[in-house]
Amino acid sequence: xxxxxxxxxxxxxxxxxxxxxxxxxxxxxxxxxxxxxxxxxxxxxxxxxxxxxxxxxxxxxxxxxxxxxxxxxxxxxxxxxxxxxxxxxxxxxxxxxxxxxxxxxxxxxxxxxxxxxxxxxxxxxxxxxxxxxxxxxxxxxxxxxxxxxxxxxxxxxxxxxxxxxxxxxxxxxxxxxxxxxxxxxxxxxxxxxxxxxxxxxxxxxxxxxxxxxxxxxxxxxxxxxxxxxxxxxxxxxxxxxxxxxxxxxxxxxxxxxxxxxxxxxxxxxxxxxxxxxxxxxxxxxxxxxxxxxx
Length: 294
Fold this sequence. Notes:
The protein has helices at 46-54, 76-79, 97-105, 116-122, 135-147, 165-182, 193-199, 217-223, 285-292; strands at 8-17, 20-30, 35-39, 61-66, 69-70, 82-85, 153-157, 185-189, 202-207, 210-216, 225-229, 246-251, 256-260, 278-281.
């Protein structure tokens, strides 16, 4: 993958099921080496978006490109440079672990042997039948299968949900090391925000089929604030905020607003002109996620 070629390029992706719009003009581009978190509650459209990114689902409008190719017409040699880990691994129950790894590796001639660090992390008996593996072991196997041919573009859909805390911790470190060493790009969907925060360079927030916020992780932490007005402020108090601030979430229960583009040079940032006192807080990712995706 060249340094200028986007690993993933979504252009106004729209997908409907009947009269329900599950993706609404979603656009973003992911560069080589980026690890990007795809965030949102159940039903936000994340899995549908992943299906469109991979070409498993065809959008009603818009397009998806991966490694410079339209996913609907992706040549085999380009497809061989991609990897995918689904939420759950199905099938292959009669295979033994080592047998399955060798069988699928044969579809990638010339690919290097599986990385010993990943094999050690998975800690799977190569003679064990897939049908006898626990849920966590099957997920480790799915990750091995997706990574053994060293893909340049990788999509992970809830890859750590069934892993224990130590396995999740080690997985995130290995994934970061893998991207640093290879320049691979990763899209990872997960509800375990503390894991994503450690390794992802960028955050994509989905809400009801819409990409509502696309922000670098460092920018999110530096320039996001939670503003809570004193009791008595009207529900539309945010209309009086400086235009430079971008309201990205609201909490109707407390009348608070989550804002982006907060400057680092002035803690008060022209809020003195508001007719109510404002409490300013720096939110953590989980608290911000709840307000952005509400």
